[in-house]
Amino acid sequence: MGMSLPVALQAALWGLVAGGALVVGAALAWFFAVPQRLTAAVMAFGSGVLISALSFELMDEAYKTGGFISTSAGFLGGAAVYTAANIYISRRGGQHRKRSGSAGGPKQSDDGGLAIAVGALLDGIPESIVIGVSMIQGGAVSLVAVTAIFLSNVPEGLSSAAGMKKAGRSATYVFGLWSGIALISSTASLAGYSIFSGFSPNVIAATEAVAAGAILAMIADTMVPEAYEVAHDYAGLITVAGFLSSFILSKVG
């Protein structure tokens, strides 16, 4: 991004890039038969990248900004809110939203498809807000955070589009839905930057920690179990490779 762009607009564009991974995943599932093992590998790698990003970028930054109390409260609160919302969505058919949809998943109903979309919003909004919040100090985006979120969103787009195609949804419906969610992600990044710029360091720290807690709960609840289910013995090694890649990127970037 050129330095001439206002930081708020840069935040929106980076949110769109991260959210756009849902559309990329949907397109891959719509036009190609993507092997489940490949989806699982991307999910495992993305999990490792996200764990590294939330450890070294979000939690570390939150602690430096607001100390233990704000960070701990936000971290636990984010996980609790995510878990409650995830249970609600799972009971309505969105529990397999990060699965590739070609095997093992439940029959997709219209409700299930919508639950997956709502689940994608649940996963994506805290992530996108983080992109905006990360730009408050210094005005530069965390490329590690954007990469991590992008990699975690691709399997979600794959999973849902494969299921919706099976359920007989049109391309217009599927791509319209995911494009809309990508735009909401962009708006959430813009809001993360614009709204939180004026807040105290404690609020910013708690917000970063809330997102970190929600993301870690998401990884434990949905990404790692479903990656393991398909990739089995290799899931751990691929997750570690993702973590290491993100760690190196955060140190040299």
Number of strands: 0
Radius of gyration: 17 Å
- Which band does the percent of strand residues land in? under 5%
User: Based on helices, strands and strand pairing, what is the structural class?
Assistant: mainly alpha
Q: Uncertain segments of ≥5 residues (pLDDT<50)? A: 100-110
Outline:
globular
Q: For the terminal residues, how far apart are their CA atoms?
A: 16 Å
Please write the string of helix (H) and strand (E) elements. Answer: HHHHHHH
Counting DSSP H or I runs of 4 or more residues, the number of helices is 7
- Average residue-wise pLDDT: 82
**Biggest sheet layout:** none
**Percent of residues in helical segments?**
over 70%
Can you tag this structure with a few keywords?
253 residues; mainly alpha; 7 helices; 82% helix; globular
Offer a concise description of the structure.
This protein has helices at 7-31, 36-94, 110-133, 143-166, 171-196, 201-231, 235-252. With 253 residues, it is mainly α. It is globular and about 50 Å long.
Could you walk me through the main structural features you see in this protein, from its secondary elements to its overall organization?
This protein is mostly helical and 253 residues long. 82% of the residues lie in helices and 0% in strands. Helix 2 crosses helix 4, helix 2 crosses helix 6 and helix 3 runs antiparallel to helix 4.
Write the layout of secondary structure elements.
Layout lengths: L6 H25 L4 H59 L15 H24 L9 H24 L4 H26 L4 H31 L3 H18 L1
Helix pairs in contact: 1-3, 1-4, 1-5, 2-3, 2-4, 2-6, 2-7, 3-4, 3-5, 3-6
